Amino acid sequence: MKPQSFKDKAIRFAKTWYLITLAAIGAFAVGTGAFDFNSTVTSWYILLGTVIIAAGLLDIAHRLKGRLPAHFTAQIQGPLLWTVTAWMLLRMSGPYSKHAIIIPAGFIAWVVTTYPPKIFLFPILFAFIMEAGLTITGRQPVAEFALNMLLYGLIAVFLVLFARSQAYRKKLAGSIARAKKKSDNREYANDLGITASGPSILKTLPEFEAIENKEQPGVSTIETITDSFDLQLELIRQALILTTVAVLWPDIHGRELRLRNISTIRKDIQPGPYPIGAGITGALLRDRNEITLAPVKADFSGLPYYIKKGGVGSLLAVNIMDNLQEETSHVDRKVSGILCVDRTEKSDWNESELTILKLLGKKLYLDINMGRQIYTMNRERNAFQQVCIGLRELNSVLGLEPVFDASIKAVRTLVQTDFIAISLLQGEYHSIVRAEGLHAKNLPGMEFSKNEGIVGQVMKINRSLPAGAEYRGPAPIFSKEQRFPDFGSLLILPLQKEKGDSIGALTVAARKPGVFTRHRRDILELIAAQVAIKIDLAQAHKQINKIATILS
Questions:
Q1: What is the separation, in whole angstroms, between the first and last Cα of the chain?
Q2: In the chain, which end has fewer C-beta atoms inside a 10 angstrom radius, N or C?
Q3: pTM for this model (two decimals)
Q4: Where are the alpha helices (DSSP H) in 396-452?
């Protein structure tokens, strides 16, 4: 190793001690009254105070980002700078110093509570030096010096006693643990490249035509979870020399169990589904989280996925969800996933094997939760893309007809509808300028009274109808002749200009009920607002062209 030169040592020494030296100079200046309210503050003192405050704030910023100093000298730099800053503020407060004394008193108490003695003794020493200097130079009487030191000591003792209370220590330990875990997770995410910036969503938007046949956002997530489950089951099966490791999962209604994942060496597998409570799984519904059997009878048939009887020496079944969630009531218990394992060996399951299999259950449940989160994020990202694509289609056109086409495209990117219509208001009547889908054949060009049908009501009150976007009839949509009772979902949105006046309505409907969820209604309202703006601009553009033609 190349020995350090005198210059390198000097630079290293300067970097280590220059902030401590700066704090010492500041303490001397405070002790001699340089920052007192009534004294003449020179430009040098102003510069010194500014540098000390800036250095203290910079040290705080580094600590808040998790950059904790490792060396002792670096650890005491910040507290010393903060101590000098607190006394500078106290002495500069002038007539308000009696109230401002809470600043240094609270700071000293916080330092004593937060840092070990080898650290907080230095700020206390600086505080004593500054108070003593002010007394020696006649800036404050001896009695005030004694009272100040007594006040600092009493507040520090009180805070220390409070910090040592059991409730506070428990809460503090929890906060520290959460902060450490958060910091570790952030660091791990950076190491894995999870937080690396990727291409902007707006820059990766597909064309409109690609949306119609786009794969559902959850397909790849489901495939990933399935592959992960299969790999974990195979690893455990081989590691513990098992016959079968299987995951049974209830359907959405909780009426039957389905074989979702399996790793086995047996060929007689019945894929199911199986009734809830079939075989050994029924015992897990009776207030039990796990079942172990060893040895098993030769003609045992309690595992529902085996066609043939026997071949099982010992088995274990574990509720997957209950491994992570403590139950508060067995009465309201829901059917959870089940991890089933068996082997030909008839010996009991030892503690090591039980621990491994229970950990597998926890890992499977964590994977499921992560999959749900990824699916939700993918779905939200997909919805955001659809909105952006629809708005891009709208913003790229001029003229009424192109706006109508782009509006219908934008709606179709968001929801599978059976009917879409655009109506424009003309005085006391409104006419359908564009209609597509079921019952739309004869509608374009038809006029209806503003006082007729749900569409007319929407234009009058400027609110989306019907409530909940459900249509059960027999209320007329456009008029008494246009009821369309085969629609289960209906949403009519006002096309409002910026001032709030309605210029028309956007009608969307579907046979299937429950199509227009709250999330989709919010997005459709956003699209309707943009459609209204584009129609208003297109009408104004058309009017300007007409005037220009007349004038020419």
A1: 89
A2: N
A3: 0.44
A4: 400-414
